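Ticket 4471: requesting a sanity check on a complex prediction with zinc ion. Repro inputs:
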Amino acid sequence: MRYATKQRKLLLDVLEAHHDETLSVAEICSLVASEEISPSAIYRNLSELEKQGLVKRVPLPLSQKTGFRYVGSNQCREHLHLECTMCGRTFHLPTPATSQLIENVRQNSGFKIDSANTVLTGVCPDCEKH
Ligand SMILES: [Zn+2]
Ligand SMILES: [Zn+2]
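Returned structure tokens:
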């Protein structure tokens, strides 16, 4: 395996394992925890993945920093995502509920939602309590 490819794979494994979290670069670095990939290489790879549409840059809640979220997970192609505007967390709508919602919208408007590219924003149950 080419060196760059191997680095990319290490990074993708970490992102896939944490696909429902928004991670800071520092967190990603500690999760990758490998001598084979430096923080600058991680950052470069993240930018590369962002260009390919596999990673999304999102503001981290409670800080000025930028976080990264993996949106290329195969598990995530089939369902809709809900993003909390207060804490920034992403929730995965179960696939049956996604199908129901999409079908409902289609029947009422003829519009076919692209679930892989749609994020619904709102307030999560935790944040609503406060
Ligand atoms: Zn998902
Ligand atoms: Zn929230």
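Notes from triage: Strands lie at 23-24, 55-59, 66-70, 81-84, 90-92, 119-122. Leaving this open until the requester confirms.
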